[in-house]
Amino acid sequence: MNRSDILRTLTLAGGIAAATVMQTKTAQAEDLQKITVAGGCFWCVESDFESVDGVSEVISGYTGGTTENPDYRNVTGGSSGHYEAVEIQFDRDQITERQIYDLFFRSIDPLDAGGQFCDRGDSYRTAIFTANPTQLEAAEAAKAAAETELDQSVVTPILELATFYEAEGYHQNYYRGEQRIVTRRGIKIQSDAYAFYRSACGRDQRVEEIWGSDAPFIKH
Asked: How much is the pLDDT for 182?
């Protein structure tokens, strides 16, 4: 076999391998399910759920409002009607919708209708956005279980999912970013600034106060 024949063979083999990888990734993507929830600051919800077995990715974004293609400024400014939300991509063979909703309720303050922790206003309210009857049934069951455990009414609404808009790139995986950013306390590594914000905002303290040992994401 001469060199040109070898190159043609390698090219063909590479093309077949690449096609196989693409088909595998496509099949894996098709197997993934998606759940959309709003739990206050989407950086925090993303951080929590990317640690869950069976969850492949969490995307920060906006949904629930009327403005098309919203950006962070008009969402947090209250003019869009959107919530800060996340899209949780997961493998149902490893974790179910009901399990994710149970974790979600125990990661938020479901008794607060005016925002979450130090973040106030409509964009920081909690909600579950369901896309099909399976999600609706699981969400309703999880909400009922949360109310029974707390012996209080849960204010987190269950809404029909509308368009989910992915947030700006700098919001994705914010909690583990390593670039240097300017903060009120000077120049900080992004992940350190996130950790300070989460602590100062009182998120984990309040969640533990409500849920105690059932709070799944509290780190001691």
From this structure: 80
